[in-house]
Design a protein that fits this description.
This protein is mainly beta and about 325 residues long. It has helices spanning about 5-20, 20-25; strands at about 30-35, 40-45, 50-55, 60-65, 70-75, 80-85, 90-95, 100-105, 110-115, 120-125, 130-135, 140-150, 155-160, 165-170, 175-180, 185-190, 195-200, 205-210, 215-220, 225-230, 240-245, 250-255, 260-265, 270-275, 280-285, 290-295, 300-305, 315. A four-stranded antiparallel β-sheet has the order 3-2-1-28, with no helix packed on it. A four-stranded antiparallel β-sheet has the order 4-5-6-7, with no helix packed on it. Strand 12 and strand 13 form a beta hairpin.
């Protein structure tokens, strides 16, 4: 059989592409867990509009994604819900302990870490199977975030009742150090090379820059009131910090640790995420039931996107 002429083959290819669902053609997507609604809003970052709403379990909080699955902490079941994005239904629930909160995925997408508040521990799981690999105690009470270093060697853990971040060695599966910071450390972000970490401390209204080699604070940057979420630009030149009480985002230059801009957003901004190219920042506004999209080149808010009730954070597919 002779092959179809080039023009006919091209038309067939275009027709097949156009037959796909509209949401399959847009990327990347931002996923927003709505704690009170029990849903996940899916935002197309090309149009800054909600294109789907997924079931998120009961009181979804922390969230991570590998692009195919969502990993969501679910407070009432004391567990982690794993949702196949294409199927939209929970694939499985894994019991972890009372009040799981922040969820983080390692850069190689092989491991998931979940901060478990009431047990003062971090659960580490195999991302593909959901099998628990370790349950690691930390010093900080009510841990909120456990974040992998870019090389996957370490976890930094923040807690509501702490004045330090706890450092976990993932080869030993135990805490090996604690690094003093301000009161109530919250969001954590690493520079892409893993040499520095930035920690927002809510009651200190300050962001602390940590040199990971020496495990010491090298800068303390005053920001807005109730500093909380942290996102680090893909090129490592800026750190974005949400200020919960002020309703703003502070922009810190990593070269000199100066605040170069303060951007108004919605009420009670919480956790945030950047698009892979770093051009847009998405901020969950818990009391506005919205997500603010920020243009990071102009450092201005460009849209407020309505989502569900009490959005806790944002994650964007890799």
């Amino acid at each position: 059989m002779r092959s179809a002429p080039p023009l006919r083959r091209l038309c067939a290819t275009l027709a097949a592409a156009l037959a796909l669902p509209a949401v399959a053609l847009a990327a990347p997507f931002a996923y927003v867990p709505n704690e009170k609604s029990g849903t996940v809003s899916v935002i197309d970052t090309a149009t800054d509009s909600v294109v789907r709403t997924l079931p998120g379990g009961a009181r979804p909080r922390g969230i991570a994604t590998d692009g195919q699955r969502l990993y969501i902490s679910e407070a009432p079941s004391d567990g982690l819900v794993i949702i196949d994005i294409s199927a939209t239904e929970p694939a499985r629930r894994i019991h972890l302990g009372e009040s799981p909160e922040g969820v983080n995925l390692s850069a190689d997408r092989r491991k998931v870490a979940v901060a478990v508040e009431e047990s003062n521990s971090v659960a580490v799981l195999d991302a593909a199977t959901g099998r628990k690999l370790a349950d690691i105690r930390v010093r900080g009470k009510n841990p909120e975030h456990a974040v992998f270093s870019p090389d996957g060697r370490w976890l930094l853990v923040s807690a509501e009742e702490a004045e330090q971040v706890d450092l976990i060695d993932l080869r030993q599966h135990r805490q090996v150090a604690q690094i003093p910071v301000g009161k109530r450390p919250r969001g954590i972000g690493f520079t892409p090379d893993g040499q520095r970490a930035y920690v927002a401390c809510e009651l200190a209204n300050t962001v602390y820059a940590i040199d990971m080699a020496s495990r010491r604070v090298i800068a303390a940057v005053p920001v807005g009131s109730f500093s909380n979420g942290v996102a680090v630009a893909p090129d490592g030149r800026r750190v974005y910090v949400s200020n919960g009480k002020d309703g703003t985002v502070s922009v810190i230059r990593t070269a000199d640790h100066q605040v170069e801009a303060t951007i108004p957003v919605g009420k009670r901004p919480w956790n945030m995420a950047l698009t892979p190219d770093g051009r847009k920042l998405y901020v969950a506004n818990g009391r506005s039931n919205s997500v603010t999209a920020i243009d990071t080149e102009r450092l201005t808010a460009i849209r407020e996107i309505p989502v569900g009730e009490l959005p806790w954070g944002v994650v964007i597919q890799p």
